[in-house]
């Protein structure tokens, strides 16, 4: 016996629940998927409850905290502000889809490990997706740009310093993997900063010398 068509299933769901349902077909973490969801479903809820990937967290549900950030066709978006219906025909990546198929961590994930960017972890997936998208646009950020890159995401534990360091480290890892110098465009700045540190801490014995 032939299986039910999607239309039949949608009609049955309406019969059972009294709610209009939709079939949403998308590429989710590189795999084509179709989900049947009530038409009112938010993208964040569709990802967590229908696609069963719970890395995407829901914090404020107002577009403020960034915990729900996903990549929609490569661009970071707040999934709590989107309806699942708007994912139809789109390419969606969550934090679960960033690592390579062989398990190699995405540069941003690797950098979070190395820089202790991960704390309680609630906000982390949103930071990781945000930074991954940012580095596609700016592969060699300065410290100020790294701060700006994460300014739209909230970490309740205020662990921003390590996350900021992770942005810079992730950029290095990307360059290393591409066979480039890890210092990249920040080379001159890094050299200046090192120079400053060395000279700034070196004073004549007794501290009486004129260092100006
Ligand atoms: S849950 Fe979406 S921005 Fe906070
Ligand atoms: S690590 Fe938990 S809110 Fe930031």
- What strand order characterises the main sheet? 2-1-5-3-4
The unique ligands bound to this protein are: FE2/S2 (inorganic) cluster
Report the radius of gyration as a whole number of Å. Answer: 23 Å
* Separation, N- and C-terminal Cα atoms: 89 Å
Number of helices: 7
The profile of the biggest β sheet is: 5 strands, mixed
The helix fraction, in percent, is 25-40%
Number of strands: 5
Shape: elongated
- Give the rounded overall mean pLDDT: 89
Sketch the topology as an H/E string, one letter per element. Answer: HEEHEEEHHHHH
Q: Name the assembly state.
A: single chain
Low-pLDDT segments, ≥5 res: 197-209
Backbone structural class: alpha+beta
Q: Strand-residue fraction?
A: 5-15%
InterPro entries: 2Fe-2S-bd (IPR002888), 2Fe-2S-bd_dom_sf (IPR036884), 2Fe-2S_ferredoxin-like_sf (IPR036010), 2Fe-2S_ferredoxin-type (IPR001041), 2Fe2S_fd_BS (IPR006058), Beta-grasp_dom_sf (IPR012675), Diverse_Oxidoreductases (IPR051452)
Pfam family, one: Fer2_2
Keywords: 2Fe-2S, Iron, Iron-sulfur, Metal-binding, Oxidoreductase
Organism: Saxibacter everestensis
Q: What's this entry about, in short?
A:
The protein is of the alpha+beta class and 212 residues long. It is built from 7 helices and 5 strands. Pfam families: Fer2 (PF00111), Fer2_2 (PF01799).
């Amino acid at each position: 016996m032939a299986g039910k068509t999607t239309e039949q299933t949608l009609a049955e769901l309406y019969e059972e629940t009294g709610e209009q349902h939709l079939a949403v077909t998308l590429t989710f973490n590189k795999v084509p998927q179709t989900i049947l969801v009530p038409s009112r479903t938010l993208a964040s809820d569709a990802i967590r409850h229908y696609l069963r990937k719970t890395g995407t967290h829901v914090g404020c549900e107002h577009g403020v905290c960034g915990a729900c950030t996903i990549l929609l066709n490569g661009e970071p978006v707040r999934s709590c502000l989107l309806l699942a219906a708007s994912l139809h025909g789109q390419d969606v990546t969550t934090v679960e889809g960033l690592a390579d198929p062989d398990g190699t961590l995405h540069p941003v994930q690797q950098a979070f490990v190395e820089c202790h960017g991960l704390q309680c972890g609630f906000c982390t997936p949103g930071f990781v997706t945000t930074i991954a998208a940012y580095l596609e646009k700016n592969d060699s950020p300065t410290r100020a740009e790294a701060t700006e890159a994460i300014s739209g995401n909230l970490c309740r534990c205020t662990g921003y310093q390590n996350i900021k360091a992770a942005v810079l480290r992730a950029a290095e890892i990307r360059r290393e993997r591409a066979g480039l110098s890890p210092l990249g465009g920040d080379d001159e700045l890094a050299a200046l900063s090192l120079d400053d540190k060395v000279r700034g801490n070196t004073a004549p014995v007794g501290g009486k010398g004129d260092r100006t």
